[in-house]
Amino acid sequence: MREFRFTTAGESHGKGLVAIVEGVVAGLPLEAEYVNKELKRRQAGYGRGTRMEIENDEAEIISGVRYGLTIGSPIALFIPNRDWQNWQEIMSVAPVEKEAEPITHPRPGHADLAGVTKYNLKDIRPIMERASARETAARVAAGAIAKRFLQQFGIVIHSHTLAVGEHRLEGVRTIDWGQVEVSLLRCADAELEREMMAAIDKARADGDTLGGVFELIAIGVPVGLGSHVGWERRLDGRIAQAIMSINAVKGVEIGSGFALARLSGSQAHDIIEPNPSLATAENEATRQSLPWRHASNRAGGIEGGMSNGEEIVIRAAVKPIATLANPLPSIDLRSGEMAVAHCERSDVCVVPAAGVIGEAMLAIVLTDACLDKFGGDNLKETLTNYHNYLNRILLGENELSNN
Ligand SMILES: Cc1cc2nc3c(=O)[nH]c(=O)nc-3n(C[C@H](O)[C@H](O)[C@H](O)COP(=O)(O)O)c2cc1C
Fold first, then answer.
1. Distance in Å, CA 350 to ligand 1 centroid
2. Ligand 1 centre from 52 Cα, in Å?
3. CA-to-CA distance for 199 and 349, rounded, in angstroms?
4. 56 falls within a domain
5. Is 261 inside any structural domain?
6. What is the pLDDT of residues 229-287, one digit of tens each?
7. pTM for this predicted structure
8. DSSP 262
9. Which of 236, 317, 354, 368: disulfide with 4, CB 3.0–4.6 Å?
10. Would 291 be classed as within a structural domain?
11. How far is Cα 399 from Cα 396, in angstroms, rounded to an integer?
């Protein structure tokens, strides 16, 4: 069983979304404003549809927090859907006299066809409502709690847009995270961003959609999260599942990922060397550094299913949105005849938002792995265990160096 667990409930046009988060240590400072800032980041991004103009996501913390501190009990969050007032009939919980006209033309690339078949429904609407990435607002709310937890350990997670359609950030570069936060596409390169925006405009004008790639970078992750001893404990596997679970994500890479397959071993692996900053002085700054480091980070911060002390680097491929203003051919499930796919208000490109959701999912996995490694029911206890562990590594008090 996972240490940090969460579940979500809610339909896209229902009354609202719910997240219930369990396993949060007591004593963690938490305010709704912090969660809401993350929710706002998810709503942004050039290429979103008009829905995001209606919604102004704000979470209410219903339980698990007292006087601004978590108390160790499950944290329930409620995010109302502002659009609900326009959908009270269509999404009514109670039976209604005249039900809405059923949707029967499944969209290629969406959950419609498999969902309506599996759940034996006469209308695609219930499938659309839950397969919608509106659900990810609840994930981002849960992820905000995880991010706040990770901050206590000095762990920070960033995301940026690597590609939209064929427009891709090439080469290795230092990312200006301040620039990414103000960029409409969460893109680190202003000129490339203009090209991406033009591509999105064209897709919108053509009634089409675009996918892309986002990258996640987790800084400050201690060595030794996850484990090599069992498949379900491997950090890479846990991260891949969490990121792949994001709507429309179709590929996950860790570090150089697929590119490693083309390299020889001597080209692929990151050389281990003494950390030169340790050789200098006995000051506090050097005590923050590990006695060794990797000369490169093609492994993306994970070796043998464990974090290796370097930055964790994850890339995810996002497929183009399946709802097209210029819809693809499909069938009418009632008659079996050819038809055009259902179309309703939709996003054109969601890569920047998917990156923010990726941050939340990565934060959730790393929080779970931290709790797994350091334990504790109260933040102070967890932090004490963490510092004891760090001291053992940083001061060289381990079995190897005592031999
Ligand atoms: C932030 C975000 C917003 C999305 N918005 C839409 C949308 O407006 N219309 C749509 O058809 N799909 C949208 N999607 C994608 C669908 O939720 C997703 O394609 C669908 O669940 C089927 O994809 P799957 O095969 O990955 O599950 C969005 C995805 C994300 C991450």
1. 8
2. 14
3. 10
4. yes
5. no
6. 999 999 999 999 999 999 999 999 999 999 999 999 999 999 999 987 655 544 444 44
7. 0.96
8. G
9. 368
10. no
11. 9
